[in-house]
Amino acid sequence: MKLKIIWLLSSVFAVFVIGSLLATSHVATTTEELDRLLNLHKIENMRVGLVESIRTVQADLHLARSPIPVNLDSIIRNASHLEKASHTCAGCHHKPELMNKFYKIEKLVRDYQQALSFFITASADAERIGRLDINAVLIGEELLALTEELSLSASGKLDRMTAVTLDEIKNVRFILLITLAFTVFVSAIMSLNLIRSILTPINQLMVGTRRITEGELGHQIEIAEKTEFKELAEDFNSMSTGLKDVYLRLEQTNDELSHEMIERKQAEDQRRDLMDQLLHAKKMQAVGVLSAGISHEFNNLLQIIQGTADLMHISMDKADPAYGRVEAIQSAAQRGTNLTQQLLAFSRKMEVAPVAIDVNTRVGQAKSILEKTLPKNIKLETLIDCENCTVLVDQSSIEQILLNLALNAGDAMPDGGTLRLITRRVPASEVPATVGIASDCALIQVTDTGHGMSEETLEHIFDPFFTTKEVGAGTGLGLSVTYGIIQTFGGMILCESSPGEGTVFSIYLPLVEGSAVATVCETRPAAAQSNVGETVMMVDDEEAILSTGRDILEDAGYKVLIARSGEEALEIFKKQAGEIDIVVLDLGMPGMGGRECLIQMAQLDPTARILISTGYGIDGNEFGEVELSYMGLLPKPFRLKDLLEAVDKGLGRA
Amino acid sequence: MTTVLVRFFTPILVAIALILSMQVQKVHAEALVIGLIPEQNVFKQTARYKPLGEYLQKKTGVQITFTMLSRYGNIIDHFINKKMDGAFWGSFTGSMAITKLGLRPVARPLWKNGVSTYHGLIFVRKDSGIKSVEDMKGKRLALVDRATTAGYIFPLAWLKERGVTVHENYFREVYFTGSHDAAILAVLSGEADVGAAKNTIWDILSVDNKRLASELVVLGKSSDVPSNALGLSSSVSDKTAEALRDALLGMDSYPEGRKVLDEFGALKFLPTVEEDYKPVFDMAEKAGIDLKNYTYENK
Q: Which domain holds residue B89?
């Protein structure tokens, strides 16, 4: 652009210079013409002066003859003018004929001067003076005649040259006008071109800038002409591209940040859920421990009550007025036992017998029961879609869970609704983190369209003895037991609900391959028989239980040994090895406790028979490593017949 | 600061003072009217002296105006009528002016031939057959002026020496041409038979007119007398007279002056005093002229 500007300005300057030169040339020509014309006029003036001089001299001539001629200097001056004029004329004209004439005039002037001088200065007689006078006058007349002749010729030439010069002046005026107009026109065209060359790219840059301001990042400008503006446009394009790149990177960073924030929020939610879950689990665990402890203690108490009542019942006659009261005690003790059993189930301390079952099959069976059980205003829908879904659960427990949940759902829909039983396989990747299972699961959902639950209710729904039902309508242990059972089998139950929108219970159970696991416990003996004097050692830290048990067993004909701790039991077991046929062993004792005692007895005599009596439930695998010829379970509180049946069974008579 | 101002302004003030003093000198300078005698054709004479006048004016600041005289002899009267302050006198008129008016001679030219004098010539045409005074009897005599040494005093003395005492009766016609060149040309053209003139004008004419040497012959030659010198009236201040003399005497020291001298036909100007006119006084005496009481009138 710089070169273009320089080129254009130089061109404009050149045009002006050319125009000026042309004009100057014509003006010079005209000036020369005018000079020549002026010279001619000067010459004409000289001629006029020359003639005038001759005439003046002629007129003054005779005065000069006076003794003291005052006009002599004037004559000399005029005659000198004659000489100068003729000399000037002769110097300008170079045509031979003219030159001859001027030389002739010059010579005449000299002769005239000489004749004049002779005439003026001579002192002679009148005749001689007259001759000198005539000579001078004649030369003067000749000079005048010759001058007049040349004057006519010069006048004609002067007129012609004047006409030519005037024409030339007209031409010059026209040429000057044309030159000026052309120069202005060319300059205007060049200036417009220059202005356009500058303004067009500036407009493009302005439009580009505006577009970028309006958000069109990356907008490109095309300037074809290779000028500074093209470089500017390239820089502008680079800047625009750079802005776009930066914007895109910002946008990407923003997306990443947003995504990260979402992920963080999800992680936070998940963490919070997990924390809630953990807290819930801790809470449930704590409640479970509490429940188990209470159950153990109550079982011991109930065991005493139950055992004592049973002994009283056996020894009393039905006509005895106290007979019915003992039965009431037995009944109350039994209800108490049921409650402690449920608490044990919640705290996963009950004995279980997990077997491999097919989910679809089991849910189908539950459906058949529910169809008969649920009120008619509740529509039952099933979506059984969990093919080959095998889980390890207690058969009776799973039915209990399903029925429990379904009946709760029925209670939530007093005015009718839809109850759905859904099963499906959930891949490990889709299992919610709160479930805490890393493998494929079978999902069993029980949904209702009932009144739903508030968030506050949801928080406590699995807590023991928590119920929204009327007093006496439920124990508040149903969902607690359900939770405990599912936890026992390594699963998880979740509940989603909101008021007015129904409730969904989702049970996740880990899928297994293969058949059922061997059970630890066997079915209890149906009834007790009278003994044949075999020795039973009862180990318990509760004196009342030992007393009641000894009474029961001795009534049944058994020889009873008593030990009040594990250490004592081992001592007796070592002393009377081979005499003790069966040991009824309490697990929860101070000192070494029942478990260590059991293990050491098994080591001392693997053929020993041990009946574990405990107010806690036990895990089926807890004593998997212990080898004994017999190991049975007698949950506390047990009734008289239960003790006797268990002992009989342990002795292989059942 | 003061030093700088002094250094800066001093030359300017000096220059202004010099210019003012020159202006003052010129303002107070005199304007002189200097007469020229018709030694030759009055136009040529005027043209010949013009550069000299301009030079003197330039050198001295004295305004010089030349005025041409139509007669030699009227010069005394012209001094009064034309209010002349000086003139380039002929030797005879100069002698007369010294005698009558107490004129102060100032300077005269030293001609290119190395002399500062001139002499008179008496000449005839070669083909006239005139070889002596005797042959001149009844002929036409062209003299220059009654107040010229070469054109009157010398031929008169020369004729008297040869026995012609009353020349008006000896010649058929005696007339005065007024200028030396006119006398020479009159004899050359046959207007007169015998002529008298000064050698300096003869020499000038000979340069352009070769006929002089081929057609004329000189019969008599006078002794040398001083060239036409500048003489100033006693009314001219000594200072001006001195300035003019210095300018004339120093002309040959300057290129400009040498150029003017060359055109004038001279090498330089020499100082001139009254004693230089002694040959004229002697010649006048021979011619029987009493300069102190000499009066004449050209007709």
A: 9-116+226-275
